[in-house]
Amino acid sequence: MSSRKLIGRGFVERVSMTPAGAAFRPEPLLIAILAAAYFALFGGLLLARTPPFAAQDEAFHWQRVLQIADGHLLAETLGPNSWGGPIDRAGYLQMLYHIDRIQKHGPVDPVEAHALSDHLAAQPPAVEVVPFPSSASFAPLAYLPQAAGVAAARAAGLGPLGQMRAGRVGNLAVYGLMVAAILRALPGGRVAVLALALSPVALQSACSLSADPLNLTLPVLMLALVWRLRDRGTPLGRGEGAGLVALSAALGLLKLTMAPFAGAALYLPAAVAGSSLRSRFALGGLCLAVALGIAVLWNAAYPFVPGPYWGTGADPAAQIARLRTDPLEALRVFADTVRDWAVMWWRDGYGRYGGHPPPWHGYASDRWVLPAFWVLLALALCDGPRRRDAGFAAGCLVPAPAYALLVLAAFWVGFTPVGSATVDGVQGRYFLPMHALVLLGLAAAAGAWRPAGLRRGLRLALFAAALALGGAVLVEVLGVWKGLWPVYG
After folding, report:
1. Distances in whole angstroms, Cα of residue 312 to Cα of each of 78, 272, 315, 316, 427
2. In sequence order, which residues have a C-beta less than 8 Å from that of residue 260 and are 6 or more positions away?
3. Of 225, 254, 349, 420, most Cβ neighbours within 10 A?
4. Is 4 within 8 Å of 177 (Cβ atoms)?
5. Rounded to whole angstroms, how far apart are CA atoms 210 and 15?
6. Domain boundaries along the sequence of the chain
7. CA within 13 Å, CB half, 342
8. In what order do the strands lie in the sheet with 82-88?
9. Degrees (nearest 5) of the Cα angle 72, 75, 78?
């Protein structure tokens, strides 16, 4: 079954349930149809038209995907602050060809690119040892969908370009399945989360080789499951408890900033987590300890520091010492960064395309990007569960700024030069999990306010507006790609 059908089915099953004898409501079905059509249309167009290796950091992700597709889950140490290893030479040379053309600021000739792919596919298999620490230092989990697609394409005899496309397809398919699982679990906030999942940068990432899709969906799945268990109110089964611990382990294998989401298990009431507060904190503490423990151990084994690699002049030891001696100064730097960059981060996290020098990178018009922020917030307030859950709302809204602070601290220590007035290197897409926290928190706080007919009508209208704004952004993006990759062979 296709991922878009699963998204529609999961949404309809959770949203359209009504008590026996209740009148059928068309709104959930209309939302599901709109979402499935949007996912199929723009997902298909992005897969077909996004130029090879043009997405954000896609060249680095490609190298890690090649490594995992060859069966090497662990990167090799190649030097100080450097990891990588042998990867498929044909795929590596294909990537270098595209990066060279992109850095010349002009379009890439698809006929020439496909000819090179066919030529490389005809050569005897060979490997090349390459350092790519910015992605080699990550655990393999977030790259498994892409690597599976590459391995399948390679087994079918496809060349590097065909393998790259198959990796993108695998990423999008798993993203669709993950979104369907989240929608099925959520007792509220489904439409708002669906709109966020279909937002332009999130969908572009899912249609690329990026590790971002699982870094977004696994934390939100943890929140969705905890909220569902709270809403159900019955004690956990052994399998459910084990599932939360397993999901926490998966969070530990993502980016370091995702591990704290395992702490959502602490939101389970004692009546759900066990018979006492002790059992509640035991389960929540175990989930958090598993996630943080795995994350710390992995990052200790691969202690990549981005600043020295990118030549930013960062000095982590000096920054940490500065933080200890003058924490208020660090908070001032963070506050100044938010003041100067908050709007730009939204543009970057919603309206950006590409990851290379212009014209291979840019932003869609603010007339689509800026209103989308308010539409998503309003949509969350119209998308509450049957019963308002103030505890879960606080559990999402209170940690949301803390998540932003964690991202800022990570880049201040690892990327920003000492003495800088603001934090460097932070991109808008890093805040997508925070946006999910805010949307779920607002939905849980709002509940199912009345009149119900007005609420449902507003929800449908706002969801349609969110898709219209996102679609307008993606039309602009696809127009840029048409000029830079003019033939889609």
Report:
1. 21, 49, 9, 12, 16
2. 288, 291, 292, 399, 403, 406
3. 254
4. no
5. 30
6. 3-232+313-484, 233-302
7. 10
8. 76-79, 82-88, 127-131
9. 135
Query: At 428, which helix (H) or strand (E)?
Result: none
SS3 250: helix
- Comparing CA positions, the residue from 486, 443, 3 lying closest to residue 224 is 443
With H, G, I as helix, E, B as strand and everything else as coil, classify residue 83: strand
Mean pLDDT, range 25-51, rounded to an integer: 96
Find, among 434, 253, 422, 409, the residue nearest to 349 by Cα. 434
pLDDT at 437 over 50: yes
The pTM of this model reads: 0.93
- What pLDDT score does 25 carry? 81
Strand ranges (E), 327-475: 352-354, 361-363
Cβ–Cβ under 8 Å, residues 79 and 233: no
Residue type, position 73, single letter: L
Amino acid at residue number 391? G
Amino acid letter at 357?
P
Residue with tokens 């100080």: 80
pLDDT at 206: 98
473 beta partners: none
Q: Using CA atoms, how far apart are residues 253 and 267, in angstroms rounded to an integer?
A: 22
| Structure confidence at residue 4 (pLDDT) | 47
Are 262 and 251 within 8 A, CB to CB?
A: yes
- For residue 318, the surrounding DSSP H or E stretch is helix 316-325
Is 60 exceeded by the pLDDT of residue 479? Answer: yes
Per-residue pLDDT reduced to its tens digit, 303-340: 999 998 999 989 999 999 988 888 899 899 999 999 99
Work out the pLDDT band at 23, boundaries 50, 70, 90: low
What 3-state class would DSSP assign to 14? helix
Q: Are 383 and 194 a contacting pair, CB within 8 Å?
A: no
Asked if residue 415 lies in contact with residue 312, where contact means CB atoms within 8 angstroms, the answer is yes
**Contacts with 337 (C-beta within 8 Å, 6 or more apart), sequence order:** 408, 422, 423, 426
